[in-house]
Amino acid sequence: MTGLWIAVGVLGALLVALVAGSFLLLAMGRLNLDLDWGRSLHELGPITVTIAAPRELVFELIAAPYIGRPPAGSGIDVLARSADLVIAAHHTRVHFYTARTVEAIEFDAPTRVGFTHVTGPVPHAVEEFALQDAEGATEVHYRGEIGIDFYVLGRIAARHWVRPQWERVVREHLQDLKGRAEEMAARRRSHEVNRNAAERGPS
Predict the structure, then answer these.
(1) What average pLDDT does the structure give for the chain?
(2) 127, 114 contact by CB (below 8 A)
(3) Can you identify the CATH homologous superfamily of domain 32-200?
(4) Cα–Cα separations (whole angstroms), residue 86 to 24, 35, 62, 117, 122
(5) Which of 74, 152, 77, 85 is nearest to 115 (CA)?
(6) Confidence (pLDDT) at 8
(7) Are 144 and 42 in contact (CB under 8 A)?
(8) Helix or strand or coil: residue 39?
(9) Of 104, 139, 145, 110, nearest to 125 (Cα)?
(10) Which of these, 1, 138, 173, 193, has the minimum number of CB atoms within 10 Å of its CB?
(11) Measuring CA to CA, which residue among 97, 88, 73, 118 is closest to residue 161?
(12) What is the DSSP letter of 70?
């Protein structure tokens, strides 16, 4: 009888380890499931940030890692590229693991950048960054949608884990974008002032 309980305990532990490992692989984007079993849709955002920089500059900074060469440490790998569409893998640090997503990115300069999920931690995701001119500054409006399977378990995971973590990463990205864009805009304005002063010559 003792041997039977030991076997049951070992099987139970293996089952728990298997389930935990599967959820971790899903979260990391290494296991991709698109079953459409009890899928629920969850809104992302809206999130808005105002950047003291021209819209063209902000768009340029958003598009640069995909249109040009991704900077070292960006976590972006461009897999395919055309004139207005890029397929790229993103590696995002989330607590103790790194999540991998592959997305199709569309560009509509200088007003919009759209992301459509291909593979990753969730079976469905679409995102949009809309850029609006605001008297020399730029308002970036983010919104999106994620879909998660598995009925009530998916709803719980989306509400308490996936959506908060996703939006946290977006907010961090927008704050980093704001800092870089405003710094570059300030440098350009300073360069323009110095150039104009040099062209006028001594008064």
Answers:
(1) 83
(2) yes
(3) START domain (3.30.530.20)
(4) 28, 26, 13, 12, 20
(5) 85
(6) 53
(7) no
(8) coil
(9) 145
(10) 1
(11) 97
(12) P
* Angstrom distance (rounded) from CA 12 to CA 55: 57
- What token pair was written down for 6? 């030991």
pLDDT digits (tens, 9 = 90+) for 142-194: 999 999 988 898 899 889 988 999 999 999 999 999 999 999 999 998 888 77
- HEC profile of 87-153: EEEEEEEECCEEEEEEEEEEEECCCEEEEEEEECCCCEEEEEEEEEEECCEEEEEEEEEEEECCHHH
How far is the C-alpha of 45 from the C-alpha of 184, rounded, in Å? 27
Block residue for tokens 């790998």:
77
Q: In this model, does residue 26 exceed pLDDT 60?
A: no
pTM value is 0.81
60-96 per-position pLDDT tens digit: 999 999 988 887 777 889 999 987 889 999 887 766 6
pLDDT band of residue 141 (cuts 50, 70, 90) is very high
| Residue 98 tokens, joined | 């790194």
Separation of alpha carbons 176 and 8, rounded Å: 51
CA dihedral for 145, 146, 147, 151, sign (positive or negative): negative
Tokens (6 digits) for 34: 């698109």
Terminal CA-CA length for the chain? 102
**Which pLDDT score is estimated for 186?**
94
- The radius of gyration of the chain's CA atoms, rounded to the nearest angstrom, is 23
